[in-house]
Write a structure and sequence with these properties.
The protein is built from nine helices and no strands. By secondary structure, it is mainly alpha-helical. Among the domains are: about 40 residues, no CATH class; about 70 residues.
Length: about 180
């Protein structure tokens, strides 16, 4: 055992039964008070003007931020978390998450619509492919049904589902049938 200690140096070599221990540095490092500040890009930009021609890189920006904090003049106040705004922050982030998911799903649907009904997106018989009338047509009919449907019946269906808001339902029905035939 004495030979092992002489070879290992000041730290003993752990045996298989022992787990290696990590040195305790708590007493060696003086306690420092840390605070975080929120700052904008103007802080780095004004510091960059003082240092001359530094490259625009992550390392140079980190150096400039460190130098600015080292000077310590006119630093922003330390960041304090205000718990009053935490629920609003969560709701805002959730709304953003839902919006991104909705956009992704709509794009996914439009890609499948293009594969099955390619001319529908090109001719755009309706202004919005996700409108009420457009969704009703896409749910009710296939492309073959639209191509074989009579123009008057289709115009009546569009006028009913559009709640009479189409100025000329015959033109919309004709463009819808043209899109179904071209697909």
């Amino acid at each position: 055992m004495a030979r092992n200690r002489a070879r290992a140096g000041p730290f003993p070599t752990p045996s298989r039964e022992q787990k290696p221990s990590v040195p305790n540095w708590r007493g060696c490092v003086p306690s420092l008070r840390w605070s975080s500040c929120v700052s904008g890009p103007q802080l780095v930009e004004t510091c960059r003007k003082n240092f001359g021609a530094l490259p625009k890189s992550e390392h140079a920006d980190a150096f400039l931020i460190a130098e600015r904090i080292r000077y310590g003049r006119k630093l922003p106040s330390p960041f304090q978390l205000d718990t009053r705004y935490a629920p609003l922050q969560r709701l805002t982030r959730f709304r953003c998450h839902l919006t991104h998911n909705l956009v992704r799903e709509k794009n996914y649907f439009l890609s499948f619509l293009f594969l099955t009904f390619a001319s529908y997106g090109q001719l755009a018989p309706f202004g919005d492919p996700f409108g009420a009338t457009s969704c009703a047509v896409l749910e009710e009919f296939t492309t073959e049904d639209l191509a074989q449907q009579s123009l008057d019946d289709l115009a009546t269906y569009l006028q009913d589902k559009g709640h009479g808001r189409f100025a000329n339902p015959q033109d919309v029905a004709a463009s819808l049938q043209r899109a179904a035939r071209d697909s």
